[in-house]
Structures are given as structure tokens and as C-alpha cells.
Specification:
The chain has 5 helices and 8 strands; from the N terminus they run βαβββαββββααα. By secondary structure, the protein is of the alpha/beta class. The protein binds zinc ion (ZN) (2 copies).
């Protein structure tokens, strides 16, 4: 049965990040979370002229690492992430798909709690897409898109009423 959310840390992702996400994400998505061993990001996903990894190529590569019982797979990259037509992205989630990807590269802060809140918000945002959630118009919702860390910090770690209801409806199916 596909029931588990897997976290896939790539090289240099600190253990405390995956440890804390493994504790917190079940409260959001109501599924068990398992952490996979660290993997090296594939060379073909690296764009040397940009010094960044390309999200499409990494998401493609994640197909090979998808565990059999995975409901979703969240890749976590320490390096900078982008797409062909943007300067950078914080993350990407396939709408109604099984894969999401976030980058820690631009989320750093000397206050680790502040840093972690950014990471958790981005993980909720991009995993939210995989559960079918669309972007939100309300800035006070984790599904509101952020283009800068200032916007990310300004958005609380919450879902609006509508998204909260939509997520509950889509994650409760595993319950008897
Ligand atoms: Zn988004
Ligand atoms: Zn919302």
C-alpha cells in the first residue's frame, strides 16, 4: 500500500533538518514519514554555467529512488535550485503527483528555528501541491507563492481555511 511519505536528503543536508521534518510533517499530512539515506545529486541535473541544479532533471532522477510503498517522495537539496526560465526556486511540487523537491540553499538564517520554519513551510507548500493544492491568493497561507525569503518569512506557517479543508479531505482517505 502506498502510504508513506519519504524524505530524500541529498548531499550536505543536515540530519537535524530531516529529523525535525520527520517529526512535524505527519501532523500536516497524516501519513508516516521515513527518511532515506543521503544521495548524491546526479551530475546531469547540474547546470555548471549557472552553478545550480535543474528541478526537472532532479525530479526525473527521483523516479529511480522512489520506494515501492511511497505515497510521496520529497527531495531535499542543500544546493541552489532553479528551472530553465527562473533565476532560482525554493522548491517545486508536482500537482497530484508523487514527487516534490525543496532547496535549503536560500533558506539559511543564524537563528536555526527561523531557518527551520522556512524549511517546514516550503516542504508543506510543495508537498501540498502533490496532494492537489493550488496556489493561494491569501498571503496568510503556506500555499501562497513566495518569491523571496522576506515573503516567505511574512507568510505564517498555516493553511487558510479552504486549503486546510481540502488537505484534510485528501489525506483522510487512509483512515479506516
Ligand atoms: Zn507552489
Ligand atoms: Zn490557502
Amino acid at each position: 500500500m502506498h502510504n508513506t511519505l519519504y524524505l530524500l536528503p541529498y548531499t550536505d543536508v543536515p540530519l537535524w533538518v530531516t529529523d525535525r521534518l520527520a517529526l512535524d510533517l505527519p501532523e500536516w499530512f497524516d501519513h508516516p514519514v521515513h527518511v532515506l539515506p543521503h544521495h548524491e545529486p546526479p551530475e546531469e541535473a547540474y547546470a555548471p554555467h549557472r552553478g545550480q541544479f535543474l528541478a526537472d532533471a532532479l525530479l526525473q532522477h527521483m523516479n529511480h529512488l522512489m520506494p515501492r510503498d511511497a505515497l510521496k517522495l520529497l527531495g531535499i537539496l542543500a544546493d541552489d535550485l532553479t528551472t530553465h526560465d527562473t533565476p532560482f526556486i525554493f522548491g517545486q511540487g508536482q500537482r497530484y503527483g508523487r514527487k516534490a523537491l525543496i532547496s535549503l540553499y536560500r533558506l539559511g538564517h543564524p537563528d536555526l528555528d527561523r531557518c527551520y520554519t522556512r524549511i517546514l513551510r516550503q516542504a508543506v507548500h510543495d508537498l501540498g501541491h502533490t496532494f492537489g493544492l493550488e496556489h493561494c491568493l491569501y498571503p496568510a497561507c503556506a500555499l501562497h507563492p513566495s518569491r523571496s525569503v522576506a515573503e516567505l518569512d511574512a507568510s505564517p506557517l498555516e493553511l487558510c481555511h479552504e486549503h486546510h479543508r481540502a488537505l484534510r479531505a485528501r489525506t483522510l482517505t487512509r483512515r479506516p
